[in-house]
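Workshop exercise sheet. Pairs work together: one partner reads the sequence aloud, the other fills in the structure field after running the prediction. Swap roles for the next sheet.
Pair: D.N. / O.F.
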Amino acid sequence: MAKLIAKTYGDALFEVAVENGTLDTMLEEVEAVLQVLENDEEYIDLLSHPKITVQEKVTMIEAAFKGRISDELMGFLVAIVTKGRFCEIEEILGYFIFKVWEEKKIGVACVTSAIVLSDEQKKAIEAKLLETTSYVEIRTRYEVDESLIGGMVIRIGDRVVDSSVKSKLEKMARELNKIQLSN
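Structure field:
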């Protein structure tokens, strides 16, 4: 249900930004609002609290953002509060950002390796990802998981490329378990 809500509202904001020709500006504003919200979880809890009236919530939103963001985004945030959906605001804004990045052919990759990668290795990985995908830009998050032993796991959307030693050993173990030894 939450994904459907995020998609519905995120698509609506995306369409408004496209119609007004403000996609880049809206993206910057949404990223800024999301950063503020992520840094203050108590604010989201407060705006989602059932005992605070809708008008009080709207006043809080206006006090925090009015004059700092466009009227379109301000109206959108007020609509989210009015509809009682503020508890899903992070997912909604995240979906909007994802939608804009897809429109601009910006990919998001998560690279997990067994060791910390050097800057040269990171550049090589990003170049290879750009070469093998339809993206014109790639934003990469790097993580270290020593349990991989060696190699790496790359995730882009729902695609996964696993070249870790751990997964290769697990595959070999499954294959060996299938073999029946006979006398």
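Discussion prompt: The chain has eight helices and four strands. What would you look at next?
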